[in-house]
Amino acid sequence: MSVLVTGAAGFIGSHVVQALLSRGETVVGVDNFSPYYDPVLKFARLKPLRDDGRFTFVEADIADREQAARLAEAHRDIDRIVHLAAQPGVRHSLVDPYVYVQTNVMGHLVMLELARKLPGLIHFVYASSSSVYGGNRKLPFAVADRADHPVSLYAATKRADELMTESYCHQFGLAATGLRFFTVYGPWGRPDMSPWIFARAIHEGRPIQLFHNGILKRDYSYIDDIVAGTLAILDRPPGEAVHRVYNLGGAGSEDLGHVIRLFEKALGRTARVEPRPGDPSDMQETEADIAATTQAFGWTPKVPVEEGIPRFVDWFREYNRL
Fold it and tell me: Domain spanning 2-254+263-271+277-320 has what CATH number?
Protein backbone atom coordinates (compact mmCIF):
# COMPACT_ATOMS: atom_id res chain seq x y z
CA MET A 1 0.00 0.00 0.00
CA SER A 2 1.14 3.57 -0.62
CA VAL A 3 0.45 7.17 0.33
CA LEU A 4 -0.29 9.86 -2.27
CA VAL A 5 1.12 13.27 -1.33
CA THR A 6 0.18 16.21 -3.53
CA GLY A 7 2.36 19.29 -3.45
CA ALA A 8 5.31 16.96 -2.83
CA ALA A 9 7.86 19.58 -3.93
CA GLY A 10 6.27 22.21 -1.71
CA PHE A 11 7.34 23.30 1.74
CA ILE A 12 5.07 21.17 3.93
CA GLY A 13 4.68 18.46 1.29
CA SER A 14 8.38 17.69 0.95
CA HIS A 15 8.75 17.40 4.73
CA VAL A 16 5.74 15.09 4.94
CA VAL A 17 7.13 12.88 2.17
CA GLN A 18 10.50 12.66 3.95
CA ALA A 19 8.82 11.70 7.22
CA LEU A 20 6.74 9.01 5.52
CA LEU A 21 9.79 7.56 3.77
CA SER A 22 11.76 7.63 7.01
CA ARG A 23 9.25 5.32 8.62
CA GLY A 24 9.27 2.89 5.69
CA GLU A 25 6.22 3.99 3.71
CA THR A 26 5.88 3.81 -0.07
CA VAL A 27 5.00 7.29 -1.36
CA VAL A 28 3.67 8.67 -4.65
CA GLY A 29 4.37 12.39 -4.90
CA VAL A 30 2.68 14.85 -7.24
CA ASP A 31 3.63 18.43 -8.09
CA ASN A 32 3.37 20.73 -11.11
CA PHE A 33 6.22 23.13 -10.20
CA SER A 34 3.98 26.20 -10.25
CA PRO A 35 5.98 29.37 -11.03
CA TYR A 36 4.36 31.31 -8.15
CA TYR A 37 7.86 31.34 -6.66
CA ASP A 38 11.19 30.12 -8.09
CA PRO A 39 10.82 26.40 -8.92
CA VAL A 40 14.55 25.97 -8.26
CA LEU A 41 13.69 25.77 -4.56
CA LYS A 42 11.11 23.08 -5.32
CA PHE A 43 13.60 21.04 -7.35
CA ALA A 44 16.07 21.29 -4.47
CA ARG A 45 13.48 20.03 -1.98
CA LEU A 46 12.62 17.13 -4.25
CA LYS A 47 16.16 16.02 -5.07
CA PRO A 48 16.94 13.99 -1.90
CA LEU A 49 13.49 12.39 -1.98
CA ARG A 50 14.07 10.99 -5.45
CA ASP A 51 17.08 9.06 -4.18
CA ASP A 52 14.75 6.81 -2.19
CA GLY A 53 13.52 3.79 -4.15
CA ARG A 54 10.18 3.84 -2.31
CA PHE A 55 9.33 7.26 -3.73
CA THR A 56 7.67 7.72 -7.12
CA PHE A 57 7.30 11.23 -8.46
CA VAL A 58 4.64 12.27 -10.99
CA GLU A 59 4.69 15.73 -12.50
CA ALA A 60 1.03 16.64 -12.87
CA ASP A 61 -1.53 19.38 -12.27
CA ILE A 62 -4.05 18.39 -9.60
CA ALA A 63 -6.80 20.25 -11.48
CA ASP A 64 -6.28 18.14 -14.62
CA ARG A 65 -8.92 15.41 -14.58
CA GLU A 66 -7.22 13.26 -17.21
CA GLN A 67 -3.90 13.30 -15.38
CA ALA A 68 -5.66 12.42 -12.13
CA ALA A 69 -7.44 9.50 -13.79
CA ARG A 70 -4.15 8.14 -15.15
CA LEU A 71 -2.58 8.52 -11.72
CA ALA A 72 -5.37 6.57 -10.05
CA GLU A 73 -5.15 3.82 -12.67
CA ALA A 74 -1.38 3.49 -12.35
CA HIS A 75 -1.38 3.45 -8.55
CA ARG A 76 -4.38 1.44 -7.46
CA ASP A 77 -2.61 0.54 -4.21
CA ILE A 78 -2.99 4.06 -2.78
CA ASP A 79 -4.82 3.71 0.52
CA ARG A 80 -4.18 7.19 1.99
CA ILE A 81 -3.97 10.68 0.51
CA VAL A 82 -2.31 13.76 1.99
CA HIS A 83 -3.53 16.55 -0.28
CA LEU A 84 -1.31 19.59 0.30
CA ALA A 85 -1.06 21.10 -3.20
CA ALA A 86 -2.61 24.56 -3.39
CA GLN A 87 -2.13 28.08 -4.64
CA PRO A 88 -0.91 29.91 -1.53
CA GLY A 89 -0.63 33.60 -0.71
CA VAL A 90 -3.30 35.94 0.58
CA ARG A 91 -2.31 39.11 -1.28
CA HIS A 92 -1.60 37.34 -4.57
CA SER A 93 -5.26 36.30 -4.70
CA LEU A 94 -6.01 39.96 -5.48
CA VAL A 95 -3.64 39.80 -8.45
CA ASP A 96 -4.61 36.49 -10.02
CA PRO A 97 -7.92 35.28 -8.55
CA TYR A 98 -8.55 32.72 -11.29
CA VAL A 99 -5.59 30.53 -10.37
CA TYR A 100 -6.93 30.26 -6.81
CA VAL A 101 -10.26 28.90 -7.96
CA GLN A 102 -8.61 26.66 -10.55
CA THR A 103 -6.07 25.14 -8.16
CA ASN A 104 -7.72 25.32 -4.77
CA VAL A 105 -11.33 24.64 -5.73
CA MET A 106 -11.21 22.68 -8.99
CA GLY A 107 -8.00 20.94 -7.89
CA HIS A 108 -9.59 19.92 -4.61
CA LEU A 109 -12.67 18.63 -6.40
CA VAL A 110 -10.52 16.54 -8.74
CA MET A 111 -8.70 15.05 -5.73
CA LEU A 112 -12.03 14.22 -4.06
CA GLU A 113 -13.16 12.45 -7.24
CA LEU A 114 -9.88 10.54 -7.35
CA ALA A 115 -10.26 9.61 -3.69
CA ARG A 116 -13.75 8.20 -4.01
CA LYS A 117 -12.70 6.01 -6.95
CA LEU A 118 -9.72 4.40 -5.22
CA PRO A 119 -11.00 1.01 -3.99
CA GLY A 120 -8.76 0.74 -0.93
CA LEU A 121 -8.73 4.33 0.31
CA ILE A 122 -9.04 4.61 4.09
CA HIS A 123 -8.23 8.28 4.74
CA PHE A 124 -8.22 11.56 2.80
CA VAL A 125 -6.25 14.23 4.68
CA TYR A 126 -6.07 17.72 3.21
CA ALA A 127 -4.67 21.17 3.97
CA SER A 128 -7.06 23.88 5.01
CA SER A 129 -5.88 27.12 6.62
CA SER A 130 -6.25 29.36 9.66
CA SER A 131 -7.35 31.98 7.12
CA VAL A 132 -10.84 30.47 7.13
CA TYR A 133 -11.47 32.15 10.51
CA GLY A 134 -11.39 35.46 8.64
CA GLY A 135 -13.03 38.32 10.47
CA ASN A 136 -13.53 36.45 13.76
CA ARG A 137 -12.59 38.52 16.79
CA LYS A 138 -12.67 35.71 19.36
CA LEU A 139 -9.25 34.26 20.17
CA PRO A 140 -7.91 31.64 20.17
CA PHE A 141 -9.63 30.25 17.08
CA ALA A 142 -11.43 26.96 17.74
CA VAL A 143 -12.76 24.60 15.09
CA ALA A 144 -16.29 25.13 16.42
CA ASP A 145 -16.08 28.86 15.65
CA ARG A 146 -17.91 30.27 12.64
CA ALA A 147 -15.91 30.41 9.42
CA ASP A 148 -18.27 32.29 7.14
CA HIS A 149 -16.59 35.70 6.90
CA PRO A 150 -13.40 35.24 4.84
CA VAL A 151 -11.36 38.41 4.34
CA SER A 152 -9.50 37.12 1.27
CA LEU A 153 -10.29 35.00 -1.77
CA TYR A 154 -7.60 32.55 -0.64
CA ALA A 155 -9.51 32.01 2.61
CA ALA A 156 -12.77 31.57 0.70
CA THR A 157 -11.27 28.84 -1.48
CA LYS A 158 -9.97 26.92 1.54
CA ARG A 159 -13.35 27.13 3.24
CA ALA A 160 -14.94 25.91 0.01
CA ASP A 161 -12.64 22.90 0.18
CA GLU A 162 -13.94 22.06 3.65
CA LEU A 163 -17.56 22.32 2.53
CA MET A 164 -17.00 20.20 -0.59
CA THR A 165 -15.28 17.55 1.50
CA GLU A 166 -18.19 17.50 3.93
CA SER A 167 -20.59 16.77 1.07
CA TYR A 168 -18.37 14.02 -0.41
CA CYS A 169 -18.07 12.27 2.93
CA HIS A 170 -21.85 12.32 3.24
CA GLN A 171 -22.54 11.23 -0.34
CA PHE A 172 -19.76 8.75 -1.02
CA GLY A 173 -18.68 7.44 2.37
CA LEU A 174 -15.24 9.06 2.40
CA ALA A 175 -13.29 9.33 5.63
CA ALA A 176 -11.59 12.73 5.57
CA THR A 177 -9.78 15.16 7.83
CA GLY A 178 -9.00 18.82 7.15
CA LEU A 179 -5.98 20.47 8.76
CA ARG A 180 -6.18 24.19 9.51
CA PHE A 181 -2.49 25.16 9.46
CA PHE A 182 -1.27 28.27 11.28
CA THR A 183 1.76 30.15 9.79
CA VAL A 184 4.06 27.20 9.22
CA TYR A 185 7.77 28.06 9.06
CA GLY A 186 11.16 26.38 9.14
CA PRO A 187 13.89 25.05 6.82
CA TRP A 188 12.88 24.91 3.14
CA GLY A 189 10.11 27.43 3.81
CA ARG A 190 8.48 29.55 1.12
CA PRO A 191 10.17 32.81 0.07
CA ASP A 192 6.86 34.69 0.07
CA MET A 193 6.31 34.10 3.79
CA SER A 194 7.38 36.40 6.62
CA PRO A 195 10.35 34.38 7.98
CA TRP A 196 12.12 34.42 4.62
CA ILE A 197 11.14 38.06 3.99
CA PHE A 198 12.38 39.13 7.45
CA ALA A 199 15.67 37.22 7.16
CA ARG A 200 16.41 38.54 3.68
CA ALA A 201 15.56 42.14 4.52
CA ILE A 202 17.60 42.17 7.74
CA HIS A 203 20.59 40.55 6.02
CA GLU A 204 20.49 43.06 3.17
CA GLY A 205 19.73 46.08 5.34
CA ARG A 206 16.40 46.75 3.65
CA PRO A 207 13.29 47.91 5.56
CA ILE A 208 10.60 45.47 6.66
CA GLN A 209 7.12 46.80 5.94
CA LEU A 210 4.67 45.87 8.68
CA PHE A 211 0.98 46.41 8.04
CA HIS A 212 -1.53 47.52 10.68
CA ASN A 213 1.29 49.82 11.86
CA GLY A 214 3.17 46.81 13.14
CA ILE A 215 0.43 45.74 15.55
CA LEU A 216 0.29 42.17 14.29
CA LYS A 217 0.39 38.79 16.00
CA ARG A 218 0.76 35.37 14.43
CA ASP A 219 0.67 31.79 15.67
CA TYR A 220 4.00 30.53 14.29
CA SER A 221 4.14 26.75 13.84
CA TYR A 222 7.46 24.99 13.33
CA ILE A 223 7.52 22.54 10.43
CA ASP A 224 8.62 19.51 12.49
CA ASP A 225 5.62 19.97 14.77
CA ILE A 226 3.27 20.31 11.81
CA VAL A 227 4.59 17.15 10.17
CA ALA A 228 4.27 15.21 13.43
CA GLY A 229 0.67 16.39 13.79
CA THR A 230 -0.16 15.59 10.17
CA LEU A 231 1.13 12.03 10.47
CA ALA A 232 -0.58 11.47 13.82
CA ILE A 233 -3.88 12.45 12.25
CA LEU A 234 -3.23 10.49 9.05
CA ASP A 235 -2.68 7.35 11.12
CA ARG A 236 -6.07 7.62 12.81
CA PRO A 237 -8.82 7.79 10.18
CA PRO A 238 -12.22 8.75 11.56
CA GLY A 239 -14.23 5.89 10.15
CA GLU A 240 -16.52 5.69 7.16
CA ALA A 241 -18.45 8.79 6.03
CA VAL A 242 -16.97 11.09 8.64
CA HIS A 243 -15.39 14.49 8.01
CA ARG A 244 -13.33 16.14 10.76
CA VAL A 245 -11.40 19.41 10.94
CA TYR A 246 -8.55 20.17 13.35
CA ASN A 247 -6.25 23.08 14.10
CA LEU A 248 -2.49 22.56 13.82
CA GLY A 249 -0.67 25.54 15.26
CA GLY A 250 1.91 26.64 17.75
CA ALA A 251 -0.78 27.32 20.36
CA GLY A 252 0.45 30.85 21.04
CA SER A 253 0.18 34.25 19.38
CA GLU A 254 3.57 35.89 18.84
CA ASP A 255 3.94 39.65 18.54
CA LEU A 256 5.84 40.37 15.31
CA GLY A 257 8.08 42.77 17.17
CA HIS A 258 9.31 39.86 19.29
CA VAL A 259 9.71 37.69 16.20
CA ILE A 260 11.80 40.35 14.45
CA ARG A 261 14.03 40.69 17.53
CA LEU A 262 14.68 36.94 17.36
CA PHE A 263 15.71 37.33 13.72
CA GLU A 264 17.98 40.23 14.65
CA LYS A 265 19.69 38.11 17.29
CA ALA A 266 20.08 35.09 15.00
CA LEU A 267 21.44 37.21 12.13
CA GLY A 268 23.53 39.55 14.27
CA ARG A 269 22.07 42.60 12.55
CA THR A 270 19.51 45.29 13.31
CA ALA A 271 16.21 45.38 11.45
CA ARG A 272 14.75 48.49 9.82
CA VAL A 273 10.98 48.52 10.29
CA GLU A 274 8.49 50.69 8.38
CA PRO A 275 4.92 50.66 9.76
CA ARG A 276 2.17 50.67 7.13
CA PRO A 277 -1.63 51.05 7.33
CA GLY A 278 -3.77 47.96 7.62
CA ASP A 279 -4.37 45.70 4.63
CA PRO A 280 -8.03 44.57 4.43
CA SER A 281 -6.95 41.11 3.23
CA ASP A 282 -4.77 40.60 6.31
CA MET A 283 -5.90 39.06 9.59
CA GLN A 284 -4.48 41.18 12.41
CA GLU A 285 -4.02 38.29 14.85
CA THR A 286 -4.13 34.50 14.73
CA GLU A 287 -3.96 31.94 17.51
CA ALA A 288 -4.86 28.26 17.43
CA ASP A 289 -6.98 26.48 20.00
CA ILE A 290 -5.47 22.99 19.75
CA ALA A 291 -7.33 21.39 22.66
CA ALA A 292 -9.35 19.13 20.37
CA THR A 293 -6.23 18.06 18.44
CA THR A 294 -4.32 17.28 21.62
CA GLN A 295 -7.22 15.34 23.11
CA ALA A 296 -7.83 13.26 19.98
CA PHE A 297 -4.23 12.53 18.97
CA GLY A 298 -1.99 13.39 21.91
CA TRP A 299 -0.26 15.98 19.75
CA THR A 300 1.24 19.20 21.07
CA PRO A 301 3.84 21.48 19.46
CA LYS A 302 7.37 21.13 20.85
CA VAL A 303 9.40 23.91 19.18
CA PRO A 304 8.90 27.51 20.36
CA VAL A 305 9.90 30.42 18.15
CA GLU A 306 12.95 31.00 20.34
CA GLU A 307 14.30 27.68 19.00
CA GLY A 308 12.63 27.53 15.61
CA ILE A 309 13.74 30.90 14.26
CA PRO A 310 17.48 30.28 14.84
CA ARG A 311 17.08 26.89 13.14
CA PHE A 312 15.44 28.55 10.16
CA VAL A 313 18.14 31.22 10.00
CA ASP A 314 20.88 28.55 10.03
CA TRP A 315 19.24 26.83 7.07
CA PHE A 316 18.57 30.15 5.31
CA ARG A 317 22.23 31.08 5.49
CA GLU A 318 23.39 27.70 4.27
CA TYR A 319 20.89 27.51 1.40
CA ASN A 320 21.65 31.05 0.21
CA ARG A 321 25.39 30.71 0.89
CA LEU A 322 25.45 33.80 3.07
Answer: 3.40.50.720
